[in-house]
Amino acid sequence: MQASTDIVPPAPKPLDELPVRIITPHSGAQAFGEAVTSIVSNFAKSRNLAWRMLVRDTSAQYRQSLLGYLWLLLPPVATVLVWVFLNKQNLVSINTGKVPYPLFVMTGTVLWTAFNSSVMAMQGIMGGAGGALSKVNFPHEALILAAFGKSLLDSLPPVLLLLPVILFYGGRFTPQMLLFPVGFLTAMLLGSALGLLFAPIGALYGDVGRGIQFALRFGFFVTPVVYPLPPSGLTRTLMLWNPVTAPLVTSRAWLTGGEAPLVPEMMLVCVASLLILGFATLAFKVAMPHVIERMNS
Question: What's this model's pTM, rounded to 2 decimal places?
Fold first, then answer.
């Protein structure tokens, strides 16, 4: 005869042994501190994910292209060749002093590309991840890291062309050339800050992205990319109010051996860019749940 066994459920725990989570209101300063701590922690955790996103998006972008990664060099080179041709033919007469005009334009184009690529990379931060955002829970800081990596990938190859151009025109190494990366990174930080600041609203309204592209086309001509900073007049005033002018003019002077006239202004732009980028990151984190909900409604 087989004995029957009864399964006795475990006795419930007393109420005083159950885990208790108490949610209490806290001050704004405490909430801000928790948000900043969360952002820093998520940036550290999402590095590998951001790298995989960057590799995936870059491979998809150039997979069906005959020239492949040469497209990273062709746009800035084409811009330089066009303006050099116009200057050679005296259609546009530009005097750059002791700096050869091709080197002058190449340096300005490289720095403008760093700024422009950073703005567009951050502005399009939601484009490639729109479907995954509503289905997968992952640190959204990975999107920011991937976008910054994309802008760096778009900006660095043209920098490699500067060395042979400098050597071709008889340039010599000077210690101040080592300061060029400071201005280059300042241009990238400024572009990333401005692009990320408008990224949440740009994900909801396409007019924002089109407006930014229009502003960048106009900004090219009020930035001393292909011509020097005027000595006086309304154009000089507009350019000095343009935040891209200071890092561009200063970095170009460091690289070509000239006198850097806007070093304090460039440092001010660098500090302001870091502050705006921090605020934009915090705003992006707060806005993301609402943006995802609106995108899927």
Answer: 0.81
